[in-house]
Specification:
Elements (H helix, E strand, L loop, with lengths): L14 E4 L8 H10 L3 E6 L4 H17 L4 E6 L8 H10 L5 E5 L7 E5 L5 E5 L5 H5 L5 E5 L9 H12 L2 E2 L7 H16 L4 H22 L3
Parallel strand pairs: 2-3, 3-4
Antiparallel strand pairs: 1-7, 2-5, 4-8, 5-6, 6-7
Length: 223
C-alpha cells in the first residue's frame, strides 16, 4: 500500500480561473481590470456582439480617456454573425486621438485572447467571447494571469501571438460594415466549413443553416 504523502502545490496568486455568474471570478470582471491598467490592449474575439460591448464600454471609455498613450487594438471576424457594426461605429466616434485600431481576420476567427502590456501586464485566455451570453449564461472557462513584465516567459508567447495575428490581419474599413458585405462574409465562412464535413451532413444540416443565416443575418447585426 502506497503511503507516500500527497504533494502540496504552491498556488500562484497571480494566476486564477474565470467563469460566468456562478464563478468566484467572472470574465467580465477580469476584463474590467484589464482596462483599469495603462498600456496597449489587444482584444481578439471570435464573436463580439453589441450587448457584450456595452457591458465593458464604460471601462473602454475610461481607458482611452485616462491617457493619450493608451491604445486599443481589436481583431474581429467581420461576418454578420460574428461582429456588430455598431461597435466599430461607436469606437470610431470615441476615438478623437487615434487610439483605436480595428482589424479583420475573415477566415474562421475563433480565438479568444485579451491582453495588456504596460505596468503589471495582464493576460486573459479561455473560451469566452465578448458577448452577453458568454458573460451571463454559458459555462465558460478562462485563465487570468499577471506578471511583472510582458517579457516574462509566461506572457511573451501570448504577446508574440497577438502581434502576429495583427501583422497578418487587414484594417477593418467602413465598407466591411455594410450589411450585404457582412452577410456575404458569413456565407463564405459557413461554405468553407461545409467543405470539411461529410456530404450527408452538409445536405441535412449546413445547407438549411445557410438559408436560415441569410434570412436572419440582419438580426445578428443588432446584437
Amino acid at each position: 500500500m502506497n503511503t507516500s504523502p500527497i504533494p502540496e502545490f504552491e498556488v500562484d496568486p497571480a494566476v486564477g480561473l474565470l467563469g460566468t455568474n456562478d464563478a468566484d471570478r467572472r470574465v467580465q470582471d477580469a476584463l474590467a481590470d484589464l482596462f483599469a491598467g495603462d498600456g496597449t490592449i489587444y482584444l481578439v474575439s471570435g464573436y463580439f456582439t453589441y450587448q457584450g460591448y456595452l457591458a465593458i464600454r464604460d471601462d473602454i471609455v475610461s481607458f482611452l480617456e485616462r491617457s493619450r498613450d493608451n491604445v486599443l487594438i481589436s481583431v474581429v471576424g467581420p461576418a454578420s454573425d460574428q461582429f456588430s457594426a455598431r461597435i466599430a461605429r461607436d469606437l470610431w466616434a470615441l476615438d478623437d486621438r487615434e487610439q483605436v485600431r480595428l482589424y479583420k481576420r475573415p477566415r474562421g476567427l475563433h480565438a479568444k485572447l485579451y491582453i495588456r502590456d504596460g505596468p503589471n501586464p495582464r493576460c486573459i485566455v479561455g473560451s469566452a467571447n465578448i458577448t452577453q451570453v458568454a458573460f451571463e449564461y454559458n459555462v465558460e472557462l478562462g485563465l487570468e494571469m499577471t506578471r511583472e513584465s510582458r517579457d516574462h516567459p509566461d506572457l511573451r508567447p501570448f504577446f508574440d501571438w497577438a502581434e502576429g495575428i495583427v501583422a497578418t490581419a487587414e484594417p477593418l474599413g467602413r465598407r466591411d460594415l455594410l450589411g450585404p458585405v457582412q452577410i456575404a462574409s458569413s456565407v463564405v465562412n459557413w461554405s468553407n466549413k461545409a467543405r470539411l464535413l461529410p456530404s450527408r451532413n452538409v445536405a441535412l444540416r449546413v445547407v438549411p443553416a445557410l438559408l436560415l443565416l441569410v434570412g436572419l443575418a440582419g438580426l445578428f447585426r443588432l446584437v
